[in-house]
Amino acid sequence: MGIEVGGFFGLILLILNVWAIVRVVQSAASTGSKVLWIVLILLLPVFGLIVWFFFGPRG
Questions:
Q1: Is there a contact between 20 and 41 (Cβ–Cβ < 8 Å)?
Q2: pTM
Q3: pLDDT tens readout for residues 39-54
Q4: 8, 23, 29, 37: which has the highest count of C-beta atoms within 10 A?
């Protein structure tokens, strides 16, 4: 059961990260800012997603 739960939460995290990256790309932020946000989300999936949610570009 532990593998199924971990896999489920991993899948949810992957979906949220892809959604966050799509939102960053669609935002009106500068190209450099977009690259930094995408790198942060990719390198630190959980922490990057949380930081992006609160402080990321809107638009």
A1: yes
A2: 0.83
A3: 999 999 889 989 989 9
A4: 37
